[in-house]
Amino acid sequence: MTKRFVLILGGARSGKSSFAMELAEKKKGQRFYLATAAALDDEMKERIEQHKRERPPSWKTVEEPEHIPKVLKELRTECSVVVLDCITLWLSNLLHNGYDEKKVWEKVKEFQGVVRENDYMLIAVSNEVGLGIVPDNPLARRFRDLAGRVNQKLAEAADEVYFLMSGIPQKIKSSGEIE
Asked: What is this structure's pTM?
């Protein structure tokens, strides 16, 4: 059985995206980078540009902050691997665009359905936001709790899960070798 879904977790600037790219480079065929970041301010614009500079020119990039399941369906016949960077930004975008928790979970379930049906390897990056102090405001606590629950569901569905600290990946789940 071909393993198709890898989840990479870690804190901010832990090396998640670089590790995801390294894994994807081992796979032959067309590679896509599915970016969920929205350039809402100058700092974010610079982060996006830095990520672009780090990608090899052979990669194709799709920028989509909200409709991730739709894009993943569209890529079915075009690629061998997709790096989705990142789940937590996607969740933040959904909340920012007025989705309530019920609607977010509908999107997550739709995402899980696409993952089960895909013909390519999907490497998804997500922030582990639950290791720090409890946020001091309700919105931040709501986001932290939602992201934690979504990460749990995705980790359950993933064939492999890695946790990164200081650029060092630790495999925390494996159900076989990635082909």
From this structure: 0.92
